[in-house]
Amino acid sequence: MPIILDKINYCYSQGTAYQIQALKDINLKIDDGQFIGIIGHTGSGKSTLIQHLNGLIRATSGTIYFNGEDIYADDYNMKDLRSQVGLVFQYPEHQLFETTIFEDVCFGPKNQGLDKKTVELRAFEALHNVGFPDELYDQSPFDLSGGQKRRVAIAGVLAMKPQVLILDEPTAGLDPAGRDEILNLIAKMHKELGITVILVSHSMEDVAKYVERIIVMNSGEVMYDGTPKDVFHHYKELEAVGLAAPQVTYLMHELKEKGLDVDLDATTVEEARNSILAALR
Amino acid sequence: MIRDITIGQYYPAESPIHKLDPRVKLFTTLIYIIALFCFKGVLGLVIITAALAAVIKLSKVPFSFMVKGLKAIVVLLLITAAFNLLLTPGDVTLWKWGVFQISDSGIKNAVVMVIRLIYLIVGTSLMTLTTTPNQLTDGLEKSLAPLAKINVPVHAIAMMMSIALRFIPILIEETDKIMKAQMARGADFENGNLIQKAKAMIPLLVPLFVSAFRRADDLAMAMEARCYNGGEGRTKMKPLKYNAQDRKAYLLVIVFLILVIAARIVLPFPM
């Protein structure tokens, strides 16, 4: 079920002195099963963009098609869209409210109007998919660590069985170990569940290792859209807008300047290692 | 939806009213409220209206901003008007049904009461629109300072007030985010009957309270880390000081009150 954005514009506080154009003429096509990273620094419009995808924000102008249907049509079922395009916000504290973890995860499927048995089955499945330990199901979600809270929040959205899973800065505020765990989990879910995953981040390092396509946002516009290799070719331009390519890219460019014949397209440590070994041989 | 709340909002502008000492504005508001509740007769109303109009003009705050604040009290206005209109006995009764009646003094009371309430909201919101919350609490603290002698915790009250005011926009933003996060999980805040709507608030209120408590805790910690220990011995970077403008304003306010009282004695009709 592809999502197509056609000339999306969005203005905050339109018609007042505080008017800000947050998105400018965004055209995008998001295909089934893709693993996409959206990158941009604070205020680049990335969070605004993803909230359009499940209809939480209505574009000032432009159209969004989900599965070929115009989501702004009068008779379109927004609730249905929101269960198919799952959005996990940055702070799990904003959504956890139930007395137990299990019941909190049940909230989404319950809102879909499913019967009790299906709801519980889905919650169980979702918690299982995010690798949450069984013995903690009856604990209060407020007692968990940051990383565990995030897992519960992801499970809460996953339990609605979305076709598209969007995660807004899922690694913010986590320590390096927790960050790797969550990113590996997301990559695993993408592979095993076969869903489209959109990962929003401001860290190239996070994204480069996992995604197949990167969309770079800058002041409300799509600056680059392509594979990580293509996008990192522009590492100088990225720097100019306050973003950085992965450290590996810099290392490879420096090695090349020093006369070592390495592959400049390497984006992960693994690829870089192989390329350097090959060059030294 | 929640962004429409304008009571207590500040409107930045360069005007003589904005530049006045907050104590002057607090005092003026107090006098204005007294005048509103003791005026009698058309002459008094004309004086108050003229004064209010002049201050609004001087403040450079668009009139529409004050009218927006009125939207919130429309229901209150209607109820007040209805009670006064239907339950006041008078000399001439125009209509009667059970305990309800419409009389000449009922009509008079209803009109005066509605005018009072509208003027009250417009006048007081004019103060908050032209005074930043910080100035307001500064002014309050200084005005109430004499009470500290009889062990009233004036500084603590002022500090609580400024923190409360500071937290309003933060909590509004937080509410917005939580609503979105729950809507992404299929929560529905708009449809359903009253009980369903009340139940739908739980997923919103629990995270909101949790975060409010956490923020309060963090703030207390941050204040303590910076050795906050109340107002004793604390100095200000910009202490409040009266200037010529402020003195003039005080004079005008007192003249205004005298005029309103004089109007009440000279011409207490037809209200």
From TrEMBL, chain A:
Keyword DNA repair tagged: no
- Enumerate the SUPFAM superfamilies for this protein: P-loop containing nucleoside triphosphate hydrolases
List residues of the ABC transporter domain. Answer: 5-244
Its placement in the membrane is given as: Peripheral membrane protein
Q: Name one Pfam family in it.
A: ABC_tran
Q: Does the keyword Ribonucleoprotein apply?
A: no
Gene Ontology MF term list: ATP binding; ATP hydrolysis activity; ATPase-coupled transmembrane transporter activity
User: Which Gene3D superfamilies does the entry mention?
Assistant: P-loop containing nucleotide triphosphate hydrolases
Main localization is membrane
According to the UniProt entry, what is the EC number of this protein?
Answer: 7.-.-.-
Entry keywords, A to Z = ATP-binding, Cell membrane, Membrane, Nucleotide-binding, Translocase, Transport
Location relative to the cell: Cell membrane
* Coiled-coil ranges from the UniProt annotation: none
Record's GO cellular component terms: ATP-binding cassette (ABC) transporter complex
Its job: ATP-binding (A) component of a common energy-coupling factor (ECF) ABC-transporter complex.
Assembly: Forms a stable energy-coupling factor (ECF) transporter complex composed of 2 membrane-embedded substrate-binding proteins (S component), 2 ATP-binding proteins (A component) and 2 transmembrane proteins (T component).
Q: Which family does it belong to?
A: Belongs to the ABC transporter superfamily. Energy-coupling factor EcfA family.
According to UniProt, the name of this protein is Energy-coupling factor transporter ATP-binding protein EcfA2
From TrEMBL, chain B:
Classify the source by domain of life: Bacteria
Q: Which UniProt keywords apply?
A: Cell membrane, Membrane, Transmembrane, Transmembrane helix
According to the record, the segments passing through the membrane are: 30-56, 68-87, 107-129, 150-172, 249-267
Entry's Gene Ontology cellular component terms: plasma membrane
Where in or outside the cell it occurs: the entry states: Membrane
> How does the entry describe its membrane topology?
Multi-pass membrane protein
- Location (main, coarse): membrane
Matching entries from InterPro entries are given as: ABC/ECF_trnsptr_transmembrane, ECF_transporter_component
Is the keyword Transmembrane assigned to this protein?
yes
Query: PANTHER family, from UniProt?
Result: SLL0384 PROTEIN
* Name under which the protein is recorded: Energy-coupling factor transporter transmembrane protein EcfT
User: In which organism is this protein found?
Assistant: Roseburia porci
